[in-house]
Protein 1
Amino acid sequence: MAAVNDRERFAQLAAEQQFLLEAYVAALTRGRGGAEMIDELVNQTMSVAVRRFERHDASRPFGPWLRGIAFKVVRAHVRRESRRARIRGEGTMERAFAEAVSRRFDAFDPPQATQRAEVMRSLVECVQSLERDSSVAIRLHYWGGLAVADIAGVLKVEAAAVHKRLQRARARLARCLERKGVMVGPEGSGREVTS
Amino acid sequence: MSGSSGQTGDDPATKPVDDAVADAVVHGLLVAAARRGASLATAVPAPTATPASRPVTRRRVVTAALASAAALVVAATLLVPPAARADAILEAAADAITQSSLRVYDVSLRIVGDRPGFAELDGRVFLFGGDAPRLVATLLVGPLRRPVRLGTGRQGAWLETPRGVIDATADSPVVSAMLGGFDDRLLRLDTLVARCRSQLHLEARSRDRDHWRVVARRREGTNEQPVAAEFIARKRDGVITAASIQLQGPLGGMALLSFNLVEGVEIQPGDLEPVRPE
């Protein structure tokens, strides 16, 4: 029954962390692939995690441990992609960037369903509070699944303008989430990503 | 962006990095939220909302197997090997539910795997990737991979989508037509259950009066591929309070189905087709 109990526990912890895991993978890989790539990396992370779960120290939080695995999975993916991408002149994932992203997520680790719902609710409220142009761009891009070029076509503006509009909107959302206390500022919680 | 909080963000030397990090974090949150269908029109519903509170216009029974006479929470966790087909495991889950004649009040189904993708039914359905539970993904996700919510309950079944709540009862002829923007192929829940029943055979063998061992064979054409499995039910005062089925695939993958009863529900031996005591 021990194995069964472990798997039940893993399933519960994984369920609690899935939202943040997807967000974390999306943050690390942004611009490098679409939804299918995120799925693939999340699945790889879960697969590794379930095999290594017995090594997890139950006295330590599960989220950072899971994201530590995710980081390695993403890094391996980026390295593979970078080998191909050198031809195209793209770089690899910068360690300092990844560590800073990890710190933000560690400080912002809501395992409970009610807390996750609060994060979602706050995010939605922040999106609703955006000025119309920004809100439309965010909705079309994230909720509508439209690429920047497609949004440019819809809004009849240059793609660069849409890109900038999305960037500004995300900056406002970050400030909004910080004001609501949902997201921490740049200092994070201080965890380093292990190699 | 970070000027509003934290000393680091006020340092011009680190501000571009902070901005990029905040940008990435918000991007990640938006991606995850959008995939969960967070409503931009109304407040996000609480995850523990009861079926009675949902704005469902019509609720009826899904299938006999999923009809909900008793209050039971079914939580199925399926850990599949990289090479396994998630849809087969999904079918195993549904089959296990139907084979055991468990009545479903609310469903929580999760599939974790390498290749097949990740799925979750916990009042909500998030099905992603590849050939993961394609039977459901075809209906529920579609080309935009939007998450929808599936609910089953005493009064029937429903799907919540970004476009509203729809009836998902078995006699609802064209569910997908109401999911504009999704795949236009039709899948009925009873079709899913029927397919599950045809592809996996679970044979329960009693270990003692409180435990059951299940031998599972996956049907592939005329062949049956053995899958080691174990069904363990915990009883208290003759009533099953929790149960789990663990399937061991030929490649070492595991499928674990856990059943937790909200209210005690008696499962009769015949429900699990016991063969012989071990």
Note: Chain B touches chain A through 64 residues (CB under 8 Å).
Protein 2
Amino acid sequence: MSSVHDWAAPNPVTTNRSGLIGKGVDRYEGPLKVTGTAPYAYEVRPPSPPAYGVMVGSAIATGRIAAVDTAEAQAAPGVLAVWTHLNVPPQPPRGTKAHPRSTAGSRPALESDRVTHWGQPVALVVADTWENAIAASALVRLSYEAGTPDVDFSARLPDAGQPPGEQDVEIGDFDAGFATSPVTLDETWSTPIQNHCQMEPCASLAWWEGDKCIAHTSVQMVKPAQHGLAETLGIDRDAVHLLTRYIGGGFGGKGQTYDDLTLAALAARALGRPVKVAFSRQQMMHGTIHRPATVQRVRLGAEKDGRLNAFSIMTWTHCHQDGTFTEHASNFARALYAAPNRLTGHRLVKLDLPGAGPMRAPGEASGTLSLECAMDELAEQLGLDPVELRIRNEPAVDPENGRPFSQRQLVRCLREGAQMFGWDRRLPTPGQVRDGRWLVGLGMAAAIRGNFLLPAKCSFSVDAEGVITVRQGMTDIGTGTYTVLAQIAAETLGVPLGVVKVEIGDSELPPAPGSGGQFGAASAGSAALAAGMNLRRAIAELATGDPNSPLYGGDPERVTFQDGVVAIENRSETLAALVRRAAPDGLTAEGDSRPPPDMREWSTQTYGSHFCEVGVDPVTGEVRVRRMLGVFAAGRILNEKTARSQLTGGMIWGVGSALTEGNAVDPRHGSLIGQDLAQYLVPVQADIGDLEAIMLDEVDDKANPMGIKGVGELGNSGAGAAVANAIYNACGVRVRDYPITPDKLLAGLIAKGM
Amino acid sequence: MLTTITVNGEARSLDLDPRTTLLDALREHLLLTGTKKGCDHGQCGACTVLVNGVRINACLSLAVAHDGDEVTTIEGLGTPEHLHPMQQAFLTHDAYQCGYCTPGQICSAVGMLREVEAGLPSHATRDVRADAVLDGEEIRERMSGNICRCSAYPQIVAAIAAVAEAES
Amino acid sequence: MRPFTYERATDLGQAVREASQTPGARFLAGGTNLLDLMKLEIERPQHLIDVSRLPLAGVEDADGGLRIGAMATNSQVAGDRRVREHYPVLTQAIVSGASGQLRNKATTGGNLLQRTRCPYFYDTTKPCNKRTPGAGCAALEGVSRETAILGASTACIAVHPSDMAVALVALGADVETQTPAGDTRRFPLMELHRLPGETPHIETHLIPGELITAVVLPPPPPGGQIYRKARDRASYATAHASIAIAGGQVALGGLAHKPWRAVTAEAALAAGASPTEAMTAELADASVGELNAFKVPLTTRLFAAAVQEISGEAA
């Protein structure tokens, strides 16, 4: 593909003859998941019984390991190996890329005596059983020279600087616009550190077959995991076969690998037997990345009719001392509302905290918690309905770069959401509605999330039974990849879903970018469509070139594919019969997809609206989400069922962000307070009332050849703000320091004399 | 220690380290890996199994303490070819995403419906003197010991409600 | 987990004798808290005596009240018809704690003896006088909201996490035990738990090897009963504060090292004070920090609302 315009031509997905595209078919791998027979990394059966590795985390945040005493651990029952930085097998220095095109460099485990965050893996114990390994891990004695942890984000705010290579973006003259606006708002919000809390803690199982390392792990991106492990082991990339067939949640936290993978591979090599290593739930909190805290200053200057004249979000955030990650909480706003004078940017400070990194809807999840509440506050100042305020600031083109929108149905999301939800019942004055002990309020927010298309490859095969096999180094982290690839394959080849097999999560399959940033389905699916088209062509040529086929001599371009039958008008045979006869070893075709350069001429986003009804107990400050509706426009939907689940899941993440999720830092120790799922509270079933997601009809033909966009992050954009706005409407208290826990809300209620 | 546990209808004799939890005995000794380890501390519910018909967290139970017990795991409820009605309902309602909490959710749901049938009250039961009526609020409260980080909560409620309705 | 030996007790007398004579012995009942802590090596028993199958799981009528066997599970007690009818505050308290799965396993005796959920108690890299007497208390200057405001000491500001115990204290329950000498002891549950003082690692007045065998409920007190709990999450979370009212008796949870019988509030209320006045008097000596100060107004408001709710039901 060289141009976006090529995508206008019909293809099997956009034509959707059998209607499979969009249909809410059950998950491809569902029968395995509901019966517990889908093996996750730690559960794969190795060729011989595995040894068990347990990591030890550092008890300081910064400093060095001064002394190591592993004698007792070594002598403990069943122990096979005890490693620290002193005796771990050598690994190439961090970042080494022996192969220049590796997508990740070396990530040595137990690298040195240097400790750069609390809970950093500093030792490994391997034993014959898990019980022996974990018991011995408690016998590893490490003493430290501890530095003073530099972890106090709020104290370090003044020291935050421009993230490397970034500039503030100013359009017009923000200060002048803000100064001359008749109605202004200038408030600051803060969001806390959050943890991914995937249900499956990171885990790896490795063994060696000769010089080849077979590694099963739980990761969202296959190629960087394979390359990174190969570079760390100092072996050829092809000597690592990395598999990740089932992944118990990712949310960005498994976008990279961790020391469990490296150590499992190293230990398996050293011991000559399979080794598996898993993080404990407690270790996950510090040992893997987190969403960093932010402070966000929002300034809005509006005309009296609500039109924004000046608009700014500035975000302060933090990352690890050795890291470069920035939580871009201001970026999403650049495409959201019109305003001639605009200023957005970020400030970053490096702290002795664990690695900051992407977590579901990075940027939007944090940023909408400020801006979408600021819009609610501004609407109140203006005496305008919050929905109407947003509609009045709807831009005609992307307000930052002037590019046309490929598709933008934000206003429709707002209007239809308002109508379906019964938004007209909202009383603008807070605290007016009571239901028993609950004060009831309604709130809303807009949602936006960018859309991306990344290069990907895929292969399609057909065998003599007419079975289509899709092969791709893609992952399914619960997103529905298996299922939508099967749907694309079935629709493209005109076969029933039941004859499609999908093989993913394997480094030896054609590479795809993996799951993240809601680019997965579009990127992987576009390559799948290309592979499917190539296989169609190969089949058509096979049929029309085979003297024994009824299609012989026909025009390959006119061959149709439906119900497992290839035909040219009334001449037909089954696909299986054709292949069995003319290509008994089967046919394989590859396809690839990459973004054409002219994609950048459009501003392509996904949009939505959230409407929420909460109850606030004015006695305790407890909040309950009673009902919630999200209306989304995200291109063509491949699977109504799995897409809806992605969206409702994202919305619930917003509820968590608004109400319960946040991890405090103990500045004395540099550690997080929430170290398990009893301390770090993710929403449970009882926190979620009636919750629904609606997807508007849309095709975005500038997004990719299928006209689809992603939905994995969108649901989490704006959802928390809708909850916060509903809380205000219920009780008249604004808490701008997330999460809105009873202690904070109670303080506001008391201050209001309630 | 020699321990005999009837797992999914079959008596299984194991020589176990007393430290081995029921969860690890199932996963690492019997290779019944459908029961998941999500937190190992009773905070997530992914390890929920039925012991003598009652749902518990397998992670907070020593296997040797279950000598003579009957344990039903997700593998004992149904197979991909012959799904238990609750498994079918989870499939139909898309009551899962990554699938890691799913076996625990399903075992928990099966045990939970029995508890309702037995009249056990919950925090959502307005008057604990009366028997609970299984509505959405009751299901949500009673299933709150099973965390789903993918947050398939509405779909899980729908799946369980569908099974409960079909059973009644 | 440290290695340990395991035995299943078949005889009560023998179990308590062995517990008192075997070094490092602990009773194992439901195990939901003990195993949790053993996995983190906060508890390091050398020998476990599994008492879960001793015949102590019955709930029986006793002198106009109920005698609840120590091995009765939380679910069993919450679901018992007599408890639901005559002691609804107990059912309400039990079902507002933990999860269905945990309540199915956790026992009555074990629930009373469960240990604090203080994050600094759980993080074994931090000083904690409960784990290591004399080590200091990281929570004192820490960043947890879930700390005590009543009866705390400079050695420990942890709170007792049980909901059930709060209701039992309001109901005026007794605890029955078997001592290693073979004697049966019975005393008010209010006297089971200790305040931390300088020895927060000693949490109860039980003697080594003594086993709780039952909780005895007196006849239900006249008047309404209610349990109210405030927490971050709608379910499966410990209390910021909780209140049990049974007739004229009031107990508080989430505020102290033990379930707190609010005798000052009870007296004030009986003397005609308003609920807010009564609870304000109860909490007059509360010692608060920046993070847990909210528990004072929270408890006062929760109490007023609970009293109002009971009066509403009565009216």
Note: The mean pLDDT of chain A is 97.
Protein 3
Amino acid sequence: MNLTLEIWRQPNAKAEGKFETYVVKDVSTESSFLEMLDILNNQLIHEGKEPVAFDHDCREGICGACSLRINGHAHGPESEVTTCQLHMRNFKDGDKIVIEPWRSRAFPVIKDLVVDRTAYETILQAGGFVSVNTGGVPDANAIPIAKDDAEESMDAAACIGCGACAATCKNGSAMLFVAARVSSLAKLPQGQVEGARRAKAMVAKMDELGFGNCTNTGACQAECPKGITINHIARLNREYLKAKFRS
Amino acid sequence: MSGSIFTSSIGKKMFMSISGCILVLFLTFHMCMNLALVFSDAAYNAICGFLGANWYAVAATAVLALVIVLHIALAIVLTLQNRKARGSIRYRANAHENGVEWSSKNMLVLGFVVLLGLIFHLVHFWYKMMFTELMGAHEVAIGAAMVAPTDGAAIVRYYFAQWPYLLLYLVWFAGIWFHLTHGVWSMMHSLGLNSKVWFKRMKCISTIVATIIIGGFALCAIVLFLQGNGILPNPLF
């Protein structure tokens, strides 16, 4: 298949960017979206031009490194799929594809399609963990956990921190990401111990880093490649308000 | 280090939802009060009597005004912060995200429609029915006639007999309906009162609440118009 790509090009964080149009020919429908970009980059290198910079790592849909807003959708048109797992069979021969970096004040563009997502790491460092003493691994069955709770916790833990939620949100809010982290730990006895401190610290850090306020549009859950739902945001709100009123 | 609840994102949502909740309760009361007019002018005027120049009516009006100001001020602050958080460069390509309600993305615009309607509404009803009475006047001009401000039924009937008023009000009601379909479930969600099981139920309840409230208001307006133009008898029964 032959495609026309409109790609955001920006040489560095300070420079002004603009869209460039490229044509890629004979792309297999079996190739992944990132492989298609690899083909484009090979072509650009042969022509002596600067290849397009984009983030990627595992290419298995589990690391959260890939991003890209493709034709108005984070991670492309297919639901619950990361860009690296998106295949060209989802497009038609002759399609025009607009490829943009995540847009959010907290995710500045570093180069072309690569954005700086350190803000998510900073939020995690504020409380998205369970403090433990080092030592042997405890027995998995030592603490009984109801199956429903374990499942809901795992649903939230599926978050790969890719940034699609904040990039999609019309408010540039990171609420779904923070909710996924707070919710997955709030459902487990190991996480509940530090629950109040975690909710307060992570929300404060999120606000401090310049993310917007959630207005419950639900656009984040529609675009999340891991199917995290905004029900977790309701739990985050509950956890946060409880923690605030008790302190 | 963890910041104040008044400035935090979730704190602001909480105040937005509590103020919204008070306004929904007020609308419910107002709609019930209007329904009385469909059945009896005397009943409606009796309720208006309670809400005239009494200290509790004035106190409740002041609280209501404060809540409205808080709701609007928060909406403006949140929107400004959110626009800033979105960054200066907009996406070139935009697509509809699955399951996202139109109203949820346009709450501020809908809010302005509601506010414009509210100003219009206050000028020709509240001003004539409550403010005039508070100022101690015993008569108010309604068209060519002079009516007592305590005769709420006559004032309301005069306006709703005219189709431009009916039309404006129906447009206003539609704006409030859209605002409420998102607002009611969103208010529960922001307070953390939602879950996997309740999510769809909350959205359904939200639509039902909005439809009952707005349906009640619209019913009154339409019945009054029809009665005012001799299509329906007055009294109805």
Note: Chain A touches chain B through 56 residues (CB under 8 Å).
Protein 4
Amino acid sequence: MTDAEMDGILERWSSQARKGYFEMLLLARLKAGRAYGYQIVATLKQAPGFENLAEGTVYPVLTRMKKDGLVTAEWVAEDTGPPRKYYTVTDLGERTLEAMRSIWRRMDEVLSTQTGKEFD
Amino acid sequence: MDVTLEFSTPEARHLWSDFLRRLDWSNRHLPRAEREDAQAEAMAHMAELIAISTQETEADRLRDALSRFGALPSPPPVWRAPLAIGLHYLAIMIIGATGLVLLILLHMVVMELFNPAGVGLYLYPGDPVPTLSYENQPDAEEVLGGWFIPAMLLIILATGAALYGLWRLTLAPTGPVSRWMKR
């Protein structure tokens, strides 16, 4: 297998993985404090694989999370610049994040165990 | 929430109106209030991006912001939905009328089994169009003879397949024309 072929496989895997932990990252960011879209995107872009995130893609996910009751949203007028819509994580959102983290940790444990066996 | 952005150059105004058009199309599935809210939020985000852009001209700052926001799908041309509706009803008529002809041909095939000497496709002298008949036509020449049933079945199968293709294209819920009608 060539490096280019492996890059293609990694890109496909990475794209699917990103979709999987996108909501978890959003909830984690909002657990740290309420934030508006631009701030959320700035945090997301620090995560591996999200450096070139199309910033508009965050809003449909936030809208869905709001409908699911994971976050609430509130417009706040600013002294300078446009008004900002701030998102706050709900109790359900926090519990969902904890459940997601638990699954993530279990996945990591299984992965570590399997990798350990393979190389023993 | 009311968010407005104004641009002074025609180029920037053109880019902005195109963005708004695409944004509206992207959010078309949302109820009106939610659509307006989503539009205001996207515009507020664009205002942030424009404010931090280091490009020199207004249009370039907007382009920079648009590129960071991400490409939005373009709405289809305005003529596509009426065209789809026209094609849809035309296909219904074609399939209905042709289907009826195929039923007649099938009926003639069955009749040929009972009356092979009479049923057939006849060509009258001076008439270029052949005629289907239940009875032997003394003044006319029978065109297909023993090949009547295979030829009719072949016509029925080929035309039926073509009609099925037309149905898939124009009337099936997952076909392109049905999708165009739903916009």
Note: The mean pLDDT of chain B is 91.
